[in-house]
Amino acid sequence: MSQQQDFQPRIGIAANRIVSATLFGIAITTYAVRTYIRARLMKRFLADDYLLLFAVICLIAGTGLDFANKQHEYDLFVAVLNDPDSVLLLSLLPSIPTIFKEEDAVQTIWWFVIFPVKLAFLFFFRRLVHRLRNLKIWWYCITTFTVLAGLTCVAVTWLSCPYFSLAGIICKHTPHLPFPFFPNPL
Fold first, then answer.
1. pLDDT 10s digits, 87-107
2. Distance, CA of 102 to CA of 68 (rounded, Å)
């Protein structure tokens, strides 16, 4: 047997789900405590609070979609790297476009979690530097850069590998392998 036929993911799906669920719980708890404190002390919400609310909504959506799609992703990845002619791969062929579209959607949602949190920090810092002209100019520059970086990250998710077929496996997961590294089953 070759080493390629013995491929198993380094991190199993159970471990992945346990870590994801734990971090999800910590994030939701932290947000709930922060919101409770903000509501009790300030009695009003600011832009950073709404950005964090948007991030939490995206976190819930992304985690749910990730949990729903993870088994198919693992099965497909193992089937392709172990035996491209396997029955498991043939059974997954009709769902490959859906798997890749959901994977790209999850990745996009993660960017919509990360960048609103960054912007929330920036809006918090804006209150600290709003009277200092030089720092305020830097704040606008950094905020503009952050927004542009966020938009770029979302666009790159879809533009770097626009294939929702078996070709997507190569450009998403195995860019070091020559194209095509397995026969076209279609």
1. 666 677 777 777 778 888 888
2. 9
